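seq as requested:
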Amino acid sequence: MSIPPAAVPGFERVEFIKALGMLSAHVTELLTNCARTLFALRTLKQHGLPPEAAHTVFQAIVMEKINYASPAWLGFTSADDRGRLEAFYGHCAHFSY
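struct tokens:
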């Protein structure tokens, strides 16, 4: 199969793009940021933040980070990445979020 020339000078037309490597890095960064937020929430709870407020902050920050554009990228993630997301959800459930 022959690839037609690029429609825009200076750009190369390709058949495939490397999406999975980018998504794995995205999931890693996403989970790292969310884990940092969980640590901050646990610290705030230890200093008197009411559980209802912690839950509201969790929903507003952590779940919104995860859910943002997830329909666009979730289908392209690997089984390992989906497993890591599920493990994170389990970790959040353990702390009653």
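The radius of gyration is 19 Å.
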